[in-house]
Amino acid sequence: MVYGQVFHQHSSDGCFINVNVGGFKQRMEHTVLKRFPQTRLGRLLCCSSKEAILELCDDFSPSEMEYYFDRNPRFFCYVLNFYLTGKIHLADGLCVVSFVQEIEYWGIKERHLDFCCSNKFHELMELAGDTRWDQRSDELQLHSSESSMEELSALEETTEMFEGSWCADVRRYIWIRLENPGYSTSAKVMAVASLSAVIVSIVAMCVHSMPDFHQVDVNEKEIENPVLTFFENLCVLFFSAELVLRLVVAPSARKFLCSPLNIIDLMSIMPFYVTVACDIMDGGESTDLENVGKVVQILRLMRVLRILKLARHSAGLRSLGATLQHSSREVGMLVLFLSVGISMFSALIYFVEKESQESELQTIPIGWWWATISMTTVGYGDTFPVTFAGKLIGTLCIICGLLIVALPITNIFNKFAKFYQKQTRIDLRRNNN
């Protein structure tokens, strides 16, 4: 390869600049540099002060009009060839990442790559991108390990907060067994009892909705099943006692009440007590409380929040919560993509189906519902297109829905896998300590 190190020497000295790159000296003609005014050397010709010159080079000698660059002298030969031919070639033995850094420094664009090197360059860039992705994954795993150690250290610091407080030894004894199920046999028994109460409460709530277990009084008014009510009250009393006990023995009441899991525990038992209070107030048949019955029904429905109490005993549910918390960007993208697709396909299906008397897609809001269940691949079948054009649009809607839903799912799944590994690692180390 000819690197163009010999230039025309017939011009006057004022038409040349002297370049020193890592000890490699070269005299370059102004007309050659002006062919590429956006490059670093081309911009030197437009500098009107020494300060402007020093922003583009490492040093400058006014007496000799020599510009110094602390860069790779071997690669500069390829830069010289670029100024003569207008094309840049891959440097032999130079990493593709370093090559990109060098051409960015000299102000050379990737579009100036010669055809013979273009394909190889993109292949090397893809390989380097895959390598960086693997390195970032390893760094993320290392960061997760460090975060796990930090959480374990925070747990140890929490236990040290008992020092100097009232009944420190007793509170620490109970607290550790409530927070760490793998600490001892008694801790495992407490965890099993808490988990059993959650399961019994959920089962009782499900059974309560079955008509076979409904009971009525002599006035044909529906009343609560006494057996289910007994188990319901027993579970709520257990949850209340557990929450109060944890609050009493907690090293910091403020941190305890701000914990997401403890907030869930509080919200799971509050509807019961509010419902009891509403029933007592409703017993007076006050005309101001005519809507209390509806409030009671809503509060009873909120008992479903007890299912979230399983998160205290499930690393998977805790990982799911952390994933949703840290995947707001991906979830937002998913909602945005679906919203755009639903709006577009609902309008299309309306315009092709509105003339058909057999079709139910006679308005765009109905088209929203159809597009939503189609793009999410649910397909209830309650509304569907009947025309040929509508079926074609329905096919495109389903295919686009599959692609749109699949795009951010990979990132969300990878985050879930990382958080799950982190959580299981924390639980394992906690149980071993």
Structure overview:
This protein has 433 residues and is mainly alpha-helical. Helices cover 64% and strands 5% of the residues. The chain is built from 16 helices and six strands. The N terminus is likely disordered.
Key features of this structure:
single chain; two-stranded antiparallel sheet; about 425 residues
- Give the proportion of residues in helices: 55-70%
Mean pLDDT comes to 76
Structural class: mainly alpha
The percent range for strand residues is 5-15%
Query: Helical element count?
Result: 16
**Low-pLDDT regions:** 1-13, 137-154, 286-290
What is the compact description of this entry?
The chain has 433 residues and is mainly alpha-helical. It contains 16 helices and six strands. It has helices spanning 30-33, 40-44, 50-54, 73-85, 96-105, 115-160, 168-179, 185-208, 226-249, 253-258, 260-282, 292-301, 315-326, 328-353, 364-375, 388-432, and strands at residues 16-21, 24-29, 59-61, 66-69, 215-216, 222-223.
Spell out the blueprint of helices and strands.
Layout lengths: L15 E6 L2 E6 H4 L6 H5 L5 H5 L4 E3 L4 E4 L3 H13 L10 H10 L9 H46 L7 H12 L5 H24 L6 E2 L5 E2 L2 H24 L3 H6 L1 H23 L9 H10 L13 H12 L1 H26 L10 H12 L12 H45 L1
Parallel strand pairs: 1-4
Antiparallel strand pairs: 1-2, 3-4, 5-6
